[in-house]
Amino acid sequence: MIETTRTFALSAIRVWDNTLPSETLSILHKQAAQRGLGHHIFKRAKNRNDQDSGLNSPIEQALDDLLTQLNDTSPIVEYWSRQEWKHIEAHADIDELLVRQQQHHQIPMKELSFRHPKNGHVLYLQVGFSVHGPTCLFPTCQFGGDLVRNADQIPVVTVPAVPSRLLRFQGDFLHAVPRPFDIWFRKFVVGVGETEPIEQWGRSVILFNTWEEEHGGPLDVSTINLEKEMTFCFNDRDEAQAISAICQNLDYVNANDIKMWKEMKILQNSNLSSEDGCVDEAIPNYSPAKIWLLGDYPRRKSQSRTVKVAAPEQQMRNALEERSQVYETILEQL
What pLDDT, in 10s, does the model give residues 103-150? Predict the structure, then answer.
């Protein structure tokens, strides 16, 4: 039963490389960098050639085409961006305002309901040469407390940050980004790490979730004002108008054809090679690891801000430091 659950969960994680051409990556990075942490939604037109859809910003058109290539008909897309390699504690994405409204009405913590997106995505645009910033997914967990409740063995999938890579996963999966990459094994960390120059330390990503029409998107997220968005993001008004006009041509910010995408397999960590290039089949040495959790108690479902597990330390470090390959590592309860 446990193995079946694990296999099913892993099948809900997909990773592809070469999803966007370099010119599109550059435009999206520029818009994302200027807009910062701006958080918005857009509704997708049923007919992508419908010019009245309002789908005119580069980011929205690119995300729409990625989903179209995947035959994903989800009508609502929530998106935001981040340019720095930041430590993101383990969490699952939720409708934040819905939970706050329930708490305002003093609904008991055990009765709070959490609404998750259908699917979560990370689109990697630019990655600095010193960045080891994988997205780490715990596909059998929705809350931090599940790390010590669900099973004796806990799979974690590490997806390295690679430009033009798209990660897609089930929307209620627990996920995190560690910084430093080995923070789970450290007793303490001082400072947040370097952010400049971006060529070395930048980690530019667009994060987006898909939502079904039944309940709409997250309650506290709005659509953009396109004119203000384009003028703000591209500074020079002439440049903004030129980019906006170019984006009316849907072919300009399209994704690569899905036939050009390269899907990455999730390999078991036991196949990682040692420093001399040989596959290390020795019994792994398990060490305590401390997973940091995001949010308050209802969000974590854990009394503590951290959860301790046992991890095959060298294998886990290798996976976290890996530059390209996607690995599954098995953690165990202490």
Answer: 878 888 777 888 899 999 999 999 999 999 999 999 999 999 999 887
For residue range 251-273, list pLDDT tens digits in order.
Answer: 567 899 999 999 999 999 874 54
Angle CA(168)–CA(173)–CA(178) in degrees, nearest 5?
85
The helix (run of H) or strand (run of E) holding residue 230 is helix 226-234
Can you give the residue range of the structural domain that contains 310? Answer: 2-333
Strand extents, DSSP E, 10-118: 13-17, 40-43, 76-84, 88-91
Domain count, the chain: 1
- Burial string for 294-307 (b: 16+ CB within 10 Å, else e) reads bbeebbbbbeebbb
End-to-end CA distance of the chain: 21
Global pTM? 0.88
Please enumerate in sequence order all residues whose Cβ is within 8 A of that of 9, keeping only pairs 6 or more positions apart, or say none. 139, 140, 155, 170, 173
With contact defined as beta carbons under 8 Å apart, do 172 and 137 qualify?
Answer: no
Could you give the 3-state DSSP secondary structure of residue 16? strand
